[in-house]
Amino acid sequence: MVFSSVSFLFFFLPILLLFYKIVPKAWRNGVLLIFSLIFYFFGEKWYLFLLLFSCVFNYGIGSQLDKKNKKLYLIIGIVVDIGLLFYFKYMNFFLDTFTDIFNLGTVTLKIILPLGISFFTFQNVSYLIDVYRKDADVERNVFTYTTYITLFPQLVAGPIVRYKDVAAQLHHRDESFDLFASGIRRFTLGLGKKVLIADILYNMITAIMAGTMTTVSYWLVAIMFSFQIYYDFSGYSDMAIGLGKMFGFDFLENFNYPFIANSVSEFWRRWHMSLSTFFKDYVYIPLGGNRCSLLRNVFNIFVVWFLTGLWHGADWNFILWGLYFFVFLCFEKFVLKDKIKNGLLKHVYTGIVILISFVIFNVTDLSQLWTFLKGMFGIGVDFSNFETLYYLKNVAMILVVACLGMGPWLKNSIEILKKGKLKTVINGGEVLYVFLILLLSIAGIVSSSFNPFIYFRF
Of 374, 350, 360, nearest to 218 (Cα)? Predict the structure, then answer.
């Protein structure tokens, strides 16, 4: 079950809201827990037991982290969590790599990747480390802890929600009509990002790549790749945050207009912020961060970006993607620094680096990746043709709309207008705008084929 589906919008969510609102407040976590497990069961069936084991196991380990031998318990907890993640997500990848190196033939295990395992594993690990560090209190109620891990808005594709950020809300949260309305608005905007932009871009990319590719079409597809991933994942994050607000939770932001960044470093301070923060707090800083020698600092950055690439998928293109960013981040930190003064040049440099990065991210076959990159730089293909111009004309409008949503300009303009004499008109117009997005999104969902969120596979 996905948020952008008829079953979720017209059955699961309304029924959940009905039960949630009619039961006493003391029972509401229980309602969320039951419905979250149902939500996961619709996607994974028997892997629900793996999720429940993970919750109960980490709850038990966490309960020992304020006692003697807490370091031993922490190690056991992390080893089991990462071990499960390794087995289900990476075992076949490492077996394939090992057998290829030593020419041992094909050895493949029948392993299906559980939905959201990368996300709930990292949430479990962050809980154990925070409790060990005394940055969070031990959760004494197993049902409350299980509710935290399985909470359906963020269970399958994030954002990575730390226990310490929502601990108080799990036990007591303020719920109001304004917060609920804000949640509906945020959810609807995220739904629009997914259905009206990301899914349309996906269909257009498929059509363009089925034809004769030229240099212009390679660059066009690279741009559309980048936009699709942004609107797909940030749309999911918006929906997760919006759903959280409907139930009184305040999840931290996961995106902050990354495509307006002036550097690759700034891009990663704005993109998938919950993941970036996780690796900074639990890997980079414990390794020594930048408070060490130059070579050690480079090594620390390498580890973080190797793991970042590997976290996104068990394939060489994801590892290459992570190491690609490692190279440019080191280049910016130790070589480039502030040598580019012109703001436009900074944007152009950052934009090109990011576009190529998402080509690496999307093209899993490394031979196809090389063909794509050669095509972007005009090697072995025509610069343009009639077919390319036809597609360019057809995608122009959606690209303009996508570009408008890449920055805070529209949002800031609305906020300024709200402070003036047109406040009532703007508020009314905003309600109609959100309602229109909802109607168009529903129409798109009903008429289109199933297209799951990109980050479901991670």
Answer: 374
Instruction: Give mean pLDDT, residues 324-337.
Output: 92
pLDDT of 1 strictly over 80: no
Closest CA to 362 of 210, 228, 201, 180: 228
Contact 360, 317 (CB under 8 A): yes
Give start and end residues of each alpha helix (H) in 172-214: 177-192, 199-209
Give me the DSSP letters along 224-290. HHHHHHHHHHHHHHHHHHHHHHHTT--PPPS-S-GGG-SSHHHHHHHSSHHHHHHHIIIIIHHHTTT
Q: How confident is the model at residue 323 (pLDDT cuts 50, 70, 90)?
A: very high
> Which tokens sit at 95?
């077996």
Q: Residue 453: its pLDDT value, please?
A: 62
Three-state secondary structure along 345-369?
HHHHHHHHHHHHHHHHHHCCCHHHH
Identity of the amino acid at 311: W
Is the pTM higher than 0.85? The answer reads: yes
In the predicted model, what is the mean pLDDT of the chain? 91
| Neighbour count for residue 107 (Cβ, 10 Å) | 10
Bond into 408 cis (ω within 30) = no
Catalytic one of 171, 172, 312, 347: 312
Residue pair 105/95 in contact (Cβ under 8 Å)? The answer is no
Average pLDDT over residues 68-87: 95
Residue 312 is a catalytic residue:
yes
Instruction: For residue 1, give the nearest of 45, 54, 52, 31 by alpha carbon.
Output: 45
